[in-house]
Amino acid sequence: MADKLFPTDFSYEGLFPRLSRRLRIGIVGGGRIATTQAAAARLTGYWEVVAGALSSNPEKAKTRGERWFLPEHRCYSSFEEMAQVEAGRPDGIDAVMVTTPNHVHYDAARVFLEAGIDVLCDKPLTNEFSEAADLVRLTRESGCVFGVCFVMASFPMVRQAREMVHAGLIGRVNQIHVEFMQDWMVPDNVAEAEHVKWRLDPAKSGATSCTGDIATHAHHTATFVSGLEMTDLRAEMHVCGAPKALEDTVMMMTRFEGDVPGTLIATRLASGNRGGLRVRVYGSEGGIEWDLEKAEYLKYNRYGDPDAILSRGQGSGVTPRVERFVRLARGFSEGVIEAWANLYTEFAMAVAARRDGIEPPLDWLDFPTVEDGARGVRFVDAAVQSHRAGGTWVTI
Questions:
Q1: Which residue, 22, 160, 333, 365, is most buried by CB atoms nearer than 10 A?
Q2: What is the pLDDT of residues 78-119, one digit of tens each?
Q3: Which tens digit of pLDDT belongs to each residue from 284-296?
Q4: Are the beta carbons of 105 and 338 closer than 8 angstroms?
Q5: 232: closest CA among 258, 213, 210, 250?
Q6: Per CATH, is 23-152+343-365 categorized as 3.40.50.2000?
Q7: Whole-structure pTM over 0.85, yes or no?
Q8: Where are the alpha helices (DSSP H) in 227-263?
Q9: Measured CA distances, 23 to 26, 87, 89, 92, 288 (Å)
Q10: Residue 272 backbone class (left: φ over 0; alpha: ψ -120 to 50; beta: rest)
Protein backbone atom coordinates (compact mmCIF):
# COMPACT_ATOMS: atom_id res chain seq x y z
CA MET A 1 0.00 0.00 0.00
CA ALA A 2 1.30 3.47 -0.95
CA ASP A 3 2.32 5.79 1.84
CA LYS A 4 -0.32 8.28 2.91
CA LEU A 5 0.14 11.84 1.69
CA PHE A 6 -1.66 13.58 4.56
CA PRO A 7 -0.23 13.51 8.09
CA THR A 8 -2.27 11.42 10.51
CA ASP A 9 -3.02 14.34 12.82
CA PHE A 10 -3.96 17.09 10.38
CA SER A 11 -6.94 19.37 10.96
CA TYR A 12 -9.28 20.98 8.45
CA GLU A 13 -9.00 24.18 10.49
CA GLY A 14 -6.18 26.63 9.92
CA LEU A 15 -3.33 26.27 7.43
CA PHE A 16 -3.21 23.51 4.85
CA PRO A 17 -1.05 20.56 5.98
CA ARG A 18 2.33 19.60 4.61
CA LEU A 19 2.20 16.41 2.53
CA SER A 20 4.58 13.46 2.82
CA ARG A 21 5.96 14.14 -0.67
CA ARG A 22 5.64 16.58 -3.52
CA LEU A 23 2.99 15.72 -6.06
CA ARG A 24 4.08 15.13 -9.64
CA ILE A 25 2.54 17.19 -12.42
CA GLY A 26 2.88 17.14 -16.20
CA ILE A 27 2.32 19.91 -18.74
CA VAL A 28 0.34 19.85 -21.96
CA GLY A 29 1.09 23.06 -23.83
CA GLY A 30 4.27 24.75 -22.76
CA GLY A 31 3.62 28.38 -23.77
CA ARG A 32 3.70 31.56 -21.70
CA ILE A 33 0.82 30.64 -19.40
CA ALA A 34 2.40 27.25 -18.69
CA THR A 35 5.53 29.04 -17.48
CA THR A 36 3.42 31.17 -15.15
CA GLN A 37 1.48 28.21 -13.80
CA ALA A 38 4.57 26.05 -13.32
CA ALA A 39 6.25 28.85 -11.34
CA ALA A 40 3.15 29.11 -9.16
CA ALA A 41 2.89 25.35 -8.69
CA ARG A 42 6.52 25.22 -7.53
CA LEU A 43 5.93 28.16 -5.19
CA THR A 44 3.42 26.10 -3.21
CA GLY A 45 5.98 23.46 -2.26
CA TYR A 46 3.38 20.82 -3.16
CA TRP A 47 4.30 20.20 -6.82
CA GLU A 48 7.22 19.29 -9.05
CA VAL A 49 7.04 19.36 -12.87
CA VAL A 50 8.28 16.00 -14.16
CA ALA A 51 6.84 15.45 -17.66
CA GLY A 52 5.46 17.34 -20.62
CA ALA A 53 3.85 17.16 -24.04
CA LEU A 54 5.26 20.49 -25.20
CA SER A 55 5.08 20.05 -28.97
CA SER A 56 3.75 17.57 -31.53
CA ASN A 57 7.16 17.76 -33.22
CA PRO A 58 9.48 15.26 -31.43
CA GLU A 59 12.56 17.46 -31.82
CA LYS A 60 10.77 20.55 -30.56
CA ALA A 61 9.30 18.53 -27.69
CA LYS A 62 12.80 17.48 -26.69
CA THR A 63 14.27 21.00 -27.04
CA ARG A 64 11.48 22.59 -25.05
CA GLY A 65 11.72 19.85 -22.45
CA GLU A 66 15.38 20.67 -21.93
CA ARG A 67 14.38 24.24 -21.04
CA TRP A 68 12.06 22.78 -18.41
CA PHE A 69 14.86 20.45 -17.17
CA LEU A 70 12.72 17.43 -18.04
CA PRO A 71 14.35 14.06 -18.73
CA GLU A 72 14.30 13.20 -22.43
CA HIS A 73 12.21 10.05 -21.92
CA ARG A 74 9.46 12.12 -20.30
CA CYS A 75 9.21 14.67 -23.12
CA TYR A 76 6.33 13.43 -25.23
CA SER A 77 5.25 14.46 -28.73
CA SER A 78 1.56 13.81 -28.00
CA PHE A 79 -0.65 14.08 -24.95
CA GLU A 80 -2.13 10.66 -25.81
CA GLU A 81 1.31 9.04 -25.46
CA MET A 82 1.98 11.01 -22.28
CA ALA A 83 -1.26 9.90 -20.63
CA GLN A 84 -0.71 6.24 -21.54
CA VAL A 85 2.94 6.06 -20.46
CA GLU A 86 2.61 8.15 -17.30
CA ALA A 87 -0.45 6.19 -16.13
CA GLY A 88 1.66 3.02 -16.28
CA ARG A 89 4.70 4.34 -14.42
CA PRO A 90 5.04 3.70 -10.67
CA ASP A 91 6.32 7.27 -10.39
CA GLY A 92 3.89 8.66 -12.99
CA ILE A 93 2.29 12.07 -12.80
CA ASP A 94 -0.42 12.64 -10.20
CA ALA A 95 -2.03 15.38 -12.31
CA VAL A 96 -1.70 17.34 -15.53
CA MET A 97 -2.02 21.04 -16.36
CA VAL A 98 -3.65 21.69 -19.75
CA THR A 99 -2.42 25.07 -21.04
CA THR A 100 -3.10 24.80 -24.78
CA PRO A 101 -5.30 26.91 -27.07
CA ASN A 102 -9.02 26.36 -26.44
CA HIS A 103 -9.72 23.82 -29.18
CA VAL A 104 -7.34 21.25 -27.62
CA HIS A 105 -8.78 21.41 -24.08
CA TYR A 106 -11.48 18.78 -24.54
CA ASP A 107 -9.37 16.09 -26.22
CA ALA A 108 -6.44 16.53 -23.84
CA ALA A 109 -8.55 16.58 -20.68
CA ARG A 110 -10.60 13.58 -21.85
CA VAL A 111 -7.52 11.44 -22.49
CA PHE A 112 -6.09 12.07 -19.02
CA LEU A 113 -9.41 11.51 -17.26
CA GLU A 114 -9.75 8.18 -19.07
CA ALA A 115 -6.25 7.31 -17.82
CA GLY A 116 -7.30 8.10 -14.24
CA ILE A 117 -5.13 11.23 -13.98
CA ASP A 118 -6.40 14.41 -12.29
CA VAL A 119 -6.68 17.54 -14.46
CA LEU A 120 -6.29 21.29 -14.06
CA CYS A 121 -7.42 22.94 -17.30
CA ASP A 122 -7.23 26.48 -18.56
CA LYS A 123 -10.43 28.32 -19.40
CA PRO A 124 -12.73 28.39 -21.25
CA LEU A 125 -13.13 24.71 -20.48
CA THR A 126 -14.15 23.89 -24.08
CA ASN A 127 -15.49 25.64 -27.18
CA GLU A 128 -18.68 23.54 -27.25
CA PHE A 129 -21.06 22.92 -24.38
CA SER A 130 -21.57 19.28 -25.42
CA GLU A 131 -17.84 18.75 -24.83
CA ALA A 132 -17.97 20.52 -21.46
CA ALA A 133 -20.90 18.34 -20.41
CA ASP A 134 -18.96 15.25 -21.45
CA LEU A 135 -16.01 16.30 -19.28
CA VAL A 136 -18.39 16.71 -16.34
CA ARG A 137 -19.66 13.18 -16.98
CA LEU A 138 -16.17 11.69 -17.32
CA THR A 139 -15.00 13.43 -14.15
CA ARG A 140 -17.88 12.04 -12.14
CA GLU A 141 -17.48 8.53 -13.57
CA SER A 142 -13.71 8.44 -13.07
CA GLY A 143 -13.74 10.00 -9.62
CA CYS A 144 -10.86 12.24 -10.71
CA VAL A 145 -10.27 15.78 -9.49
CA PHE A 146 -10.86 18.41 -12.18
CA GLY A 147 -10.00 22.07 -11.61
CA VAL A 148 -10.51 25.00 -13.99
CA CYS A 149 -8.25 28.05 -14.07
CA PHE A 150 -10.57 30.84 -12.99
CA VAL A 151 -7.59 32.13 -11.03
CA MET A 152 -9.16 35.44 -9.97
CA ALA A 153 -11.14 33.56 -7.34
CA SER A 154 -7.84 32.66 -5.65
CA PHE A 155 -6.81 36.19 -4.71
CA PRO A 156 -7.07 36.50 -0.92
CA MET A 157 -9.18 39.65 -1.05
CA VAL A 158 -11.64 38.04 -3.47
CA ARG A 159 -12.00 35.25 -0.91
CA GLN A 160 -12.48 37.91 1.77
CA ALA A 161 -15.17 39.62 -0.33
CA ARG A 162 -16.98 36.31 -0.73
CA GLU A 163 -16.79 35.62 3.01
CA MET A 164 -18.22 39.04 3.86
CA VAL A 165 -21.05 38.88 1.34
CA HIS A 166 -21.99 35.36 2.45
CA ALA A 167 -21.93 36.50 6.10
CA GLY A 168 -24.55 39.12 5.27
CA LEU A 169 -22.32 42.12 5.95
CA ILE A 170 -23.79 44.05 3.01
CA GLY A 171 -27.31 42.79 3.63
CA ARG A 172 -29.46 41.37 0.85
CA VAL A 173 -27.68 41.58 -2.52
CA ASN A 174 -29.59 43.87 -4.89
CA GLN A 175 -27.20 44.49 -7.82
CA ILE A 176 -23.93 43.12 -9.23
CA HIS A 177 -21.57 44.90 -11.63
CA VAL A 178 -18.39 43.45 -13.11
CA GLU A 179 -16.01 44.51 -15.84
CA PHE A 180 -12.71 43.34 -17.30
CA MET A 181 -10.92 46.14 -19.15
CA GLN A 182 -7.63 45.52 -20.99
CA ASP A 183 -5.80 47.52 -23.65
CA TRP A 184 -3.42 45.13 -25.39
CA MET A 185 -5.46 45.03 -28.63
CA VAL A 186 -5.38 48.81 -29.17
CA PRO A 187 -2.61 48.70 -31.85
CA ASP A 188 -4.03 48.01 -35.33
CA ASN A 189 -1.32 45.42 -36.09
CA VAL A 190 -1.81 43.36 -32.92
CA ALA A 191 -3.48 40.50 -34.83
CA GLU A 192 -0.19 39.80 -36.60
CA ALA A 193 1.52 38.61 -33.41
CA GLU A 194 1.95 34.83 -33.22
CA HIS A 195 0.52 34.49 -29.72
CA VAL A 196 -2.57 36.48 -30.76
CA LYS A 197 -3.45 34.75 -34.05
CA TRP A 198 -5.12 31.71 -32.48
CA ARG A 199 -7.20 33.93 -30.18
CA LEU A 200 -8.83 35.48 -33.25
CA ASP A 201 -9.20 32.23 -35.20
CA PRO A 202 -12.72 30.73 -34.82
CA ALA A 203 -11.34 27.25 -35.51
CA LYS A 204 -9.21 27.50 -32.36
CA SER A 205 -10.84 30.11 -30.14
CA GLY A 206 -14.42 29.08 -30.87
CA ALA A 207 -17.29 31.46 -31.58
CA THR A 208 -15.81 34.24 -29.43
CA SER A 209 -12.49 35.77 -28.48
CA CYS A 210 -12.91 38.41 -25.77
CA THR A 211 -16.05 36.78 -24.33
CA GLY A 212 -14.60 33.30 -23.96
CA ASP A 213 -11.25 34.57 -22.72
CA ILE A 214 -11.82 37.40 -20.24
CA ALA A 215 -15.60 37.84 -19.91
CA THR A 216 -15.65 34.30 -18.49
CA HIS A 217 -13.34 35.53 -15.71
CA ALA A 218 -15.77 38.37 -15.03
CA HIS A 219 -18.74 36.00 -15.00
CA HIS A 220 -17.08 33.57 -12.60
CA THR A 221 -15.82 36.32 -10.27
CA ALA A 222 -19.28 37.89 -10.03
CA THR A 223 -20.98 34.60 -9.23
CA PHE A 224 -18.19 33.50 -6.86
CA VAL A 225 -18.26 36.67 -4.75
CA SER A 226 -22.03 37.12 -4.71
CA GLY A 227 -22.92 33.44 -4.29
CA LEU A 228 -25.63 33.92 -6.93
CA GLU A 229 -25.78 32.19 -10.29
CA MET A 230 -26.27 34.32 -13.39
CA THR A 231 -29.61 33.29 -14.91
CA ASP A 232 -30.15 35.56 -17.93
CA LEU A 233 -28.22 37.97 -20.11
CA ARG A 234 -28.57 40.36 -23.01
CA ALA A 235 -25.32 40.73 -24.98
CA GLU A 236 -23.85 42.81 -27.76
CA MET A 237 -20.44 41.96 -29.21
CA HIS A 238 -18.35 44.55 -31.03
CA VAL A 239 -15.14 44.96 -32.99
CA CYS A 240 -14.08 48.40 -31.81
CA GLY A 241 -10.56 48.43 -33.19
CA ALA A 242 -9.02 47.15 -36.43
CA PRO A 243 -11.12 44.56 -38.32
CA LYS A 244 -11.01 41.11 -36.72
CA ALA A 245 -12.72 37.75 -37.27
CA LEU A 246 -13.95 37.76 -33.66
CA GLU A 247 -15.06 40.43 -31.18
CA ASP A 248 -12.70 42.49 -29.07
CA THR A 249 -15.47 43.91 -26.84
CA VAL A 250 -18.69 42.63 -25.26
CA MET A 251 -21.34 44.51 -23.26
CA MET A 252 -24.11 42.81 -21.31
CA MET A 253 -27.10 43.43 -19.14
CA THR A 254 -27.41 40.54 -16.71
CA ARG A 255 -29.74 38.98 -14.17
CA PHE A 256 -28.88 36.71 -11.25
CA GLU A 257 -30.87 34.43 -8.97
CA GLY A 258 -33.65 36.26 -7.17
CA ASP A 259 -34.04 38.59 -10.18
CA VAL A 260 -30.97 40.59 -9.09
CA PRO A 261 -29.89 42.89 -11.96
CA GLY A 262 -26.35 43.60 -13.07
CA THR A 263 -23.97 44.56 -15.85
CA LEU A 264 -20.92 42.89 -17.40
CA ILE A 265 -18.46 44.59 -19.76
CA ALA A 266 -15.24 43.15 -21.18
CA THR A 267 -12.90 44.74 -23.72
CA ARG A 268 -9.29 44.68 -24.88
CA LEU A 269 -9.34 48.26 -26.16
CA ALA A 270 -9.58 50.32 -22.96
CA SER A 271 -6.34 52.31 -23.05
CA GLY A 272 -4.69 52.57 -19.65
CA ASN A 273 -6.21 49.32 -18.36
CA ARG A 274 -4.07 46.17 -18.17
CA GLY A 275 -5.64 44.04 -15.45
CA GLY A 276 -8.89 45.99 -15.19
CA LEU A 277 -11.08 43.33 -13.57
CA ARG A 278 -13.43 45.08 -11.15
CA VAL A 279 -16.34 43.58 -9.25
CA ARG A 280 -18.90 45.55 -7.24
CA VAL A 281 -21.65 43.90 -5.22
CA TYR A 282 -24.21 46.15 -3.53
CA GLY A 283 -26.80 45.17 -0.97
CA SER A 284 -29.53 46.50 1.29
CA GLU A 285 -27.02 47.50 3.98
CA GLY A 286 -23.83 48.35 2.09
CA GLY A 287 -21.46 47.36 -0.66
CA ILE A 288 -18.12 45.77 -1.46
CA GLU A 289 -15.68 46.48 -4.30
CA TRP A 290 -12.47 44.80 -5.56
CA ASP A 291 -10.09 45.87 -8.33
CA LEU A 292 -7.46 43.51 -9.78
CA GLU A 293 -5.06 46.40 -10.37
CA LYS A 294 -5.29 47.13 -6.62
CA ALA A 295 -5.57 43.49 -5.62
CA GLU A 296 -4.20 43.97 -2.10
CA TYR A 297 -7.23 46.00 -1.04
CA LEU A 298 -10.96 45.57 -0.61
CA LYS A 299 -13.36 48.49 -0.25
CA TYR A 300 -16.25 47.91 2.16
CA ASN A 301 -19.06 50.24 3.06
CA ARG A 302 -21.93 50.03 5.52
CA TYR A 303 -24.47 52.59 4.36
CA GLY A 304 -24.14 55.75 6.43
CA ASP A 305 -20.72 54.81 7.83
CA PRO A 306 -17.27 55.88 6.62
CA ASP A 307 -15.79 53.66 3.91
CA ALA A 308 -13.39 50.97 5.13
CA ILE A 309 -10.38 49.72 3.15
CA LEU A 310 -9.26 46.22 4.16
CA SER A 311 -5.72 45.16 3.23
CA ARG A 312 -4.36 41.68 2.65
CA GLY A 313 -2.28 40.23 5.45
CA GLN A 314 -2.48 38.36 8.71
CA GLY A 315 -4.02 40.31 11.56
CA SER A 316 -5.66 42.84 9.27
CA GLY A 317 -9.26 41.77 9.68
CA VAL A 318 -9.34 38.93 7.17
CA THR A 319 -10.99 35.70 8.25
CA PRO A 320 -9.04 32.55 9.22
CA ARG A 321 -10.24 30.87 5.99
CA VAL A 322 -8.62 33.69 4.03
CA GLU A 323 -5.41 33.74 6.08
CA ARG A 324 -4.59 30.28 4.64
CA PHE A 325 -3.88 32.06 1.34
CA VAL A 326 -1.73 34.90 2.71
CA ARG A 327 2.02 34.40 2.25
CA LEU A 328 3.49 37.79 3.14
CA ALA A 329 2.82 40.49 5.70
CA ARG A 330 1.10 43.72 4.72
CA GLY A 331 3.39 46.07 2.84
CA PHE A 332 5.08 43.23 0.91
CA SER A 333 2.85 42.93 -2.13
CA GLU A 334 1.46 39.71 -3.52
CA GLY A 335 0.07 39.30 -7.02
CA VAL A 336 -1.14 36.91 -9.67
CA ILE A 337 1.67 34.34 -9.20
CA GLU A 338 0.60 33.97 -5.59
CA ALA A 339 -3.05 33.70 -6.67
CA TRP A 340 -2.09 30.91 -9.07
CA ALA A 341 -0.18 29.30 -6.20
CA ASN A 342 -3.34 29.43 -4.07
CA LEU A 343 -5.24 27.64 -6.85
CA TYR A 344 -2.50 24.99 -7.11
CA THR A 345 -2.48 24.60 -3.32
CA GLU A 346 -6.19 23.80 -3.15
CA PHE A 347 -5.88 21.55 -6.18
CA ALA A 348 -3.02 19.71 -4.43
CA MET A 349 -5.18 19.17 -1.34
CA ALA A 350 -7.96 17.70 -3.48
CA VAL A 351 -5.57 15.44 -5.43
CA ALA A 352 -3.89 14.21 -2.23
CA ALA A 353 -7.25 13.60 -0.57
CA ARG A 354 -8.38 11.46 -3.51
CA ARG A 355 -5.22 9.40 -3.37
CA ASP A 356 -5.56 8.91 0.40
CA GLY A 357 -9.24 8.00 0.10
CA ILE A 358 -10.26 11.04 2.17
CA GLU A 359 -13.55 12.90 1.70
CA PRO A 360 -12.90 16.46 2.95
CA PRO A 361 -15.76 18.67 4.18
CA LEU A 362 -17.56 20.31 1.26
CA ASP A 363 -16.62 23.80 2.43
CA TRP A 364 -12.90 23.10 2.91
CA LEU A 365 -11.82 23.87 -0.68
CA ASP A 366 -13.22 26.52 -3.02
CA PHE A 367 -11.19 26.09 -6.23
CA PRO A 368 -13.20 26.21 -9.49
CA THR A 369 -14.33 22.76 -10.63
CA VAL A 370 -15.31 21.18 -13.93
CA GLU A 371 -18.91 22.16 -13.16
CA ASP A 372 -17.81 25.80 -12.89
CA GLY A 373 -16.05 25.41 -16.22
CA ALA A 374 -19.20 24.01 -17.82
CA ARG A 375 -21.23 26.93 -16.46
CA GLY A 376 -18.69 29.26 -18.05
CA VAL A 377 -19.15 27.58 -21.44
CA ARG A 378 -22.93 27.84 -21.12
CA PHE A 379 -22.51 31.55 -20.30
CA VAL A 380 -20.48 32.04 -23.50
CA ASP A 381 -23.08 30.14 -25.55
CA ALA A 382 -25.86 32.34 -24.16
CA ALA A 383 -23.90 35.50 -24.99
CA VAL A 384 -23.37 34.33 -28.58
CA GLN A 385 -27.04 33.40 -28.93
CA SER A 386 -28.16 36.78 -27.58
CA HIS A 387 -25.82 38.74 -29.81
CA ARG A 388 -26.84 36.86 -32.95
CA ALA A 389 -30.49 37.48 -32.10
CA GLY A 390 -29.93 41.23 -31.93
CA GLY A 391 -29.22 41.54 -28.24
CA THR A 392 -32.34 39.81 -26.88
CA TRP A 393 -32.60 38.35 -23.38
CA VAL A 394 -31.42 34.73 -23.23
CA THR A 395 -31.71 32.32 -20.32
CA ILE A 396 -28.40 30.69 -19.39
A1: 160
A2: 999 999 999 999 999 999 999 999 999 999 999 999 999 999
A3: 999 999 999 999 9
A4: no
A5: 258
A6: no
A7: yes
A8: none
A9: 10, 14, 14, 10, 37
A10: left
